[in-house]
Amino acid sequence: MGAIGIVLLVAFVIVCVLLVLLVIVQDDGENGMGGLLGGRGTAAFGSHSASVLTKTTTVLVVLFFVLALGLALVNKKAKVDTDLVETTTEAVESTSETAENWWAESSDAE
After folding, report:
1. SS3 for 97?
2. How far apart are CA 79 and CA 9, in angstroms?
3. What is the pLDDT of residues 27-60, one digit of tens each?
4. HSE toward the beta carbon, residue 3, CA cutoff 13 A
């Protein structure tokens, strides 16, 4: 992981901590889904506009997903070399043929 990966990881951890703290700070009163389904509001998603905490949480969630995608792209593994896969497959096949005949070798020794 290079310098870009480390910077992304540090930013990701900071965003995660802030996101957890913001979710904990928000009140769970009539603003959530319970208030929506409880029938207290007349509008589809409540009659009030989003508060500063809600807007900040939305921004942090978007940052969370962008940083997670960036970390995944930075840390992805390179493609597997097909020549290496063929060589490994041949070695496994030769080992399995030897392993299948173990009983014939031990009976010849006795």
Report:
1. helix
2. 23
3. 766 555 555 555 554 455 555 556 888 888 899 9
4. 0
> 3-class DSSP state for residue 44?
coil
- Output the six-digit token pair for 73: 């792209």
Decide if 60 contacts 15 (C-beta within 8 A).
Answer: yes
For 11-29, the pLDDT digits (tens) are 999 999 999 999 888 876 6
Q: Which two tokens stand for residue 51?
A: 């508060």
Whole-prediction pTM: 0.55
From CA 11, how far away is CA 15, in angstroms rounded? 6
Question: Residue 59: is it exposed, middle or buried by C-beta count within 10 angstroms (0-12/13-18/19+)?
Answer: middle
Do the beta carbons of residue 36 and residue 45 sit within 8 Å?
yes
Half-sphere exposure of 5 (CA within 13 A, CB side): 8
CB 26 within 8 A of CB 54: yes
Residue showing tokens 């960036």? 70
